[in-house]
Design a protein that fits this description.
Layout: H1 11-20, H2 27-37, E1 42-45, H3 52-64, E2 76-79, H4 83-96, E3 104-107, H5 113-122, E4 126-129, H6 131-139, E5 150-153, H7 156-161, H8 165-174, E6 180-185, H9 190-199, E7 204-207, E8 218-224, H10 233-248, E9 255-258, H11 262-274, E10 279-282, H12 288-300, E11 305-308, E12 323-326, H13 333-340, E13 350-356, H14 361-371, E14 377-378, H15 380-383, H16 386-389, H17 416-420, H18 428-438, H19 443-446, H20 460-466, H21 470-481
Bound molecules: adenosine monophosphate.
Adenosine monophosphate is lined by residues 22, 25-26, 29, 48-54, 317.
């Protein structure tokens, strides 16, 4: 079996790896590190969870350790689709580079330009960036990419989903032709294939097996739910969520609750808090430092419930999540796989429960087609009168429905009753949440439409002509985002793009 010491990594990198406790390289590491160290381009077809971050950071650090940083001319560049992923790569970099003298700059939106500029000016060996923020720095004249020797594109398929490909092409064209490129994607959509054919030179292609669509260690279920009245559906749905959480009892050590819309992420988190559940929201509109803090608290166990949009569904390495609740059925079937993949990691047990309202049944059918099995309907608890099923102080474990498999098309018991009544004492702020909810929806709050991390809708051509100030660029971006079209998409569209393009899901939002 290959060992890290067989891979020609520098001794200081090997020492850092040994200190992390990793003994053997994962297949993507064993496959990608040797050609990368030889200076070859690498095309890694691998998903998150395969150890791909180390497969590019380790050789990069080994190679960079030989040279020296120059002001405003980074020697390497890592592009990530989201701020969180960029921050995660930066963390990995710090871990593996702790015994070598290398500097890095993390260039992501939501963080002050000034601080980032100061680091670039001092000279950074490695830039870890989201494409939008990198180009903003470039256009301000604070950055030269002509010294880039190694360029990494991480999660290229996600970049495609988020509309970043023109930015990526532009960044490629700003770096030297002689650079080494390490390119990672979970799948090879035709557009990704085109980019790799254009910008990679005779790459070593390493493909690692896709994760089974849904892990066998995850117990999945879906609760069919219909509100008593349209205007009560949301309140009742939140109540149902609470009763589902309660009925999982202590087994539910922690959980991610996924909502399709950012507005719902906020409302659900707020409502849970008011009902005494330790919850916080994470989505693309929140301040970056807050996002990072929330994520850190969830990781270290000081926060029990993370209410999230799909920004947290892909790529993030959050170990040990006992439960995933899908407050909404995701509009794109692949997102279901990514969402529930946050639990049941590394052979651990995981539980996932989804709430499905009638208008989501079509999406549920899409998911079941994709995962090639029926998701067991549960709902016996819901059949009980509300006073028992959801209002009791003890939503007893026994009430938790058994995960029974129902034949397709059979009418699964609806979870109406469980959710129709108000709690005995409705906390004040739940009504605040309601107030937010009943406000006329805005374009921003209606859907998770805006890609999470500043993907630009401007073409590279118009950008290179323009050279806008940051403010202009911001306003340009948001007005672009209001133009509709692409704008309606949700991030994390999944691997088998681009079926969604044909789909209108406005009516489902
Ligand atoms: P990634 O796919 O880069 O997000 O990595 C997924 C997880 O695997 C992270 O928690 C890494 O710290 C961990 N990991 C990376 N390489 C190894 C290895 N060789 N052995 C065990 N765990 C690893």
């Amino acid at each position: 079996m290959t060992k890290f010491s067989d891979l020609n990594l520098g001794p200081k990198v090997l020492k850092a790896v040994a200190e992390t406790g990793y003994e053997t390289p994962t297949p993507i590491q064993a496959g990608a590190i040797p050609p990368a160290l030889e200076g070859r381009d690498v095309l890694g077809i691998a998903q998150t969870g395969t150890g791909k971050t180390a497969s590019f950071t380790l050789p990069m650090i080994s190679m960079l350790a030989r040279g020296r940083a120059r002001a405003r001319m980074p020697r390497s560049l890592v592009l990530c689709p989201t701020r969180e992923l960029a921050a995660q790569v930066a963390e990995n970099f710090d871990t593996y580079a702790k015994h070598v003298k290398l500097t890095k700059a993390l260039l992501i939106g939501g963080v002050s330009f000034k601080e980032q500029e100061a680091v670039i000016n001092r000279g950074a060996d490695v830039l870890i960036a989201t494409p939008g923020r990198l180009l903003d720095h470039f256009e301000r004249g604070g950055l030269l990419l002509t010294g880039v020797q190694i360029m990494v594109v991480d999660e290229a398929d996600r970049m495609l989903d988020m509309g970043f490909i023109p930015d990526i092409e532009r960044i490629f064209s700003l770096t030297p032709f002689t650079r080494q490129t390490l390119f990672f994607s979970a799948t090879m959509a035709p557009e990704i294939e085109r980019i790799t054919n254009t910008f990679l030179s005779n790459p070593a292609r390493i493909e690692v097996a896709r994760q089974a669509t849904t892990s066998e260690t995850i117990t999945q279920s879906v609760v069919m739910f219909k509100g008593s009245r349209k205007d009560r559906e949301a309140t009742e749905k939140r109540k149902l969520l609470r009763s589902l959480i309660e009925s999982e009892g202590e087994k539910c050590k922690n959980a991610i609750i996924f909502c399709n819309r950012k507005s719902d992420v906020d409302i659900v988190a707020k409502s849970m808090k008011k009902y005494g559940l330790d919850a916080a929201a994470i989505h693309g509109d929140l301040d970056q430092s807050q996002r990072m803090r929330t994520l850190a608290e969830f990781r270290d166990g000081s926060l029990r419930f993370l209410v999230a949009s799909d920004v947290a569904a892909r790529g993030l390495d959050i170990p040990d999540v006992s439960h995933v609740f899908n407050y909404d059925v995701p509009s794109h079937a692949e997102d279901y796989v990514h969402r529930i993949g946050r639990t049941g990691r590394a052979g651990k047990e995981g539980t996932t429960i989804m709430i499905c309202v009638p208008r989501d049944e079509r999406n549920l059918a899409d998911i079941e087609r994709l995962v090639k099995h029926e998701i067991p309907r549960v709902g016996e608890a819901a059949e009980k009168p509300a006073t028992e099923a959801s209002l009791s102080d003890e939503p007893a474990r026994e009430e938790k429905p058994k995960r029974t498999r129902k034949p397709r098309g059979d009418k699964a018991p609806k979870a109406e009753a469980a959710a129709t009544e108000e709690p005995a004492s409705k906390p004040e702020a739940e009504s605040e949440a309601e107030a937010v909810e009943h406000k006329a929806p805005t374009a921003e709050t209606q859907t998770e439409a805006k890609p999470q991390d500043e993907p630009r809708k401007t073409s590279s051509r118009s950008r290179s002509r323009g050279g806008r100030s940051s403010d202009q660029s911001k306003s340009g971006r948001s007005s672009d985002q209001n133009k509709g079209g692409n704008n309606n998409r949700t991030v994390g569209l999944g691997d088998d793009m681009p079926s969604f393009i044909a789909k209108s899901f406005e009516d489902r939002m």
